[in-house]
Design a protein that fits this description.
Helix content is about 45%, strand content about 10%. By secondary structure, the chain is an alpha+beta fold. The chain has a single domain, classed as Alpha-Beta Plaits, CATH 3.30.70.1290. A four-stranded antiparallel beta sheet has the order 2-3-1-4, with helices on both faces. Helix 1 runs antiparallel to helix 2. The chain is globular and about 45 Å long.
Length: about 220
């Protein structure tokens, strides 16, 4: 049975999740994390994908990215996944697949959900009780948004840039977003959309997407 065609309109951000098969580890140490980051930098540039947010967990990854062309996300993830599996199998003396089938993704309504989704992604290590605070986890875009660290693979979303007139003000206002717990209803919406692949957005946003492609849920 042929795979369902993904709707991937240029300029619309997506929340992407890829998990290890049977929840097995996909990263076994700093070298693995660093190599995956190098691949993200390489293939995001090659396929015209802007990476706004990410977190690399031990057995899955979350990305927030915007393609500049049709099928940009699929091409990016295929290149990234295949190349990383070859590396991982060779380094750890194993064979076979690593990822749990196709990656999952959903379109994001920037105006209403993007910063919330970015925050959800960066809070994953805290939610998983791996660290007490998001700044304690290295393999996350929180290092860039809240702490001012630079990364060649990072493309800040315009909504993040609009938080302040300079980097200091943006970081200060971004930190305020983390001062209170994220509402449960918002976390549930983000999780549900990610699992189902349905659009995370307002009725108006979905209507606008339907005008571009009739297959949008």
């Amino acid at each position: 049975m042929p795979r369902t065609i993904r709707f991937c309109p240029p300029g619309v951000p997506q929340h992407i999740i890829q998990r290890g098969n049977n929840r097995q580890p996909t990263f076994k140490g700093r070298v693995d994390f660093a190599f995956y980051c190098r691949l993200m930098e390489q293939y995001s540039e090659e396929h015209g994908v802007a990476l706004h947010g990410w977190v690399l967990m031990t057995n899955h990854v979350h990305l927030l990215a915007t393609p500049s062309k049709e099928n940009g996300i699929s091409a990016f993830m295929q290149s990234l996944g295949r190349r990383y599996v070859r590396y991982f199998n060779r380094r750890h003396d194993r064979t076979g697949g690593l990822w749990e089938g196709r990656f999952r993704s959903c379109l994001i309504d920037s105006e209403n959900y993007l910063l919330g989704c970015q925050r959800y992604i960066e809070m994953n290590p805290v939610s998983a009780r791996m660290v007490a605070n998001p700044e304690d986890y290295w393999w996350s875009s929180y290092q860039c948004h809240a702490l001012g660290k630079t990364s060649e693979m990072h493309t800040p979303h315009p909504l993040y840039l609009a938080l302040g007139k300079d980097s200091h003000e943006r970081r200060h206002r971004y930190l305020k977003l983390f001062a209170r717990p994220m509402p449960d209803y918002l976390k549930d919406e983000i999780r549900k959309a990610a699992r189902s692949g349905k659009t995370l957005g307002s009725a108006k946003f979905k209507s606008e997407l339907q005008a571009r492609c009739s297959i949008v849920d």
